[in-house]
Amino acid sequence: MAFVALAISVVVGACAGGNATATNALTPTPVAATPVSTLAPSASATGSGTATASSTPASGVPNFKRIYVIVMENKAYGSIVGSNSAPYLNSLIARYGQLTNLYAETHPSEPNYIALTSGGLQGTNSDGAYNLGVPNLFDQIEASGRTWHVYAQGYPGGCYTGALAGAVADGPGAVGEYVRKHNPAISYTSISGNPARCANITKLTGFDPAAADFEMIIPNQINDMHSSSVEAGDAFLKGFVPQITSSPAFADSVLFITWDEGIPNDKGGGHIATIVVSPNMTPGSRFEGPSTHYSMLRTIELAWGMPLLGEAQKASTITLPY
After folding, report:
1. Interhelix angle for 293-303 vs 109-118, to 10°?
2. What is the pTM of this model?
3. Using one digit for the tens of pLDDT, what is the confidence trace for 29-64?
């Protein structure tokens, strides 16, 4: 089996505390957004939004057919890896691979989602409602001639920019609330201000693993472990992930399952699990070097020959056997 260098950078974000209680309502109930902050790239922001095409080095990263990213919430590495509460996740680790030394960058949640998709914190420091006019991964993907789709469980649709929406039944797993802070695409004005583009954000019902080249899956606050247990999130993933891995669309593709933050606050945002799934991966693969979410962004950009955004230019390259 050929060994291909896979560049991954992972920055894990922190998620705000506080539990959301799921209800059985079947219609989203929009809730007013928190005060909006409109931020443009700033030299003082950690990791500017500047894309530098010349910084992209030669790379052995596979030209993946499709890339999938699932972001879970608020659980430390030790709560997942080797835990009896996460049998499905540990079966993926054994069959595929994982990163053992990945740390989140900060707390709370939202800045880490922004880092993952733009290469910097962009001045964000809370779980607020941000309108960011910065280069981002979604823009890059379209510019490269590829497509993207965000499946946000419980998302009301229609370019909805509210802080949260009431709990609804939407695809596999438990009923739970949608929250804006976990959906990075809606924080970029190039998307939120363009109905045709924010139509690429939909509910999880109707998930299609072949719908786009890049697909980000954002579970609700119960299924992502934010306001529930490791067992609940593991059960959701057991019901959902096979829709990807058993599909013909997954050939020559990769799936990343990561978390936004760990507890305690080691190295900023805590130590988190990140699982890497690809059809021909050597079982039990490990990468033990230091990594962050910026490496994941870097991996995607290198795989598809796109410029490196912000901190992805300096992120570590993670190698795994494929």
Report:
1. 20
2. 0.85
3. 333 333 345 555 433 333 333 444 333 445 678 899
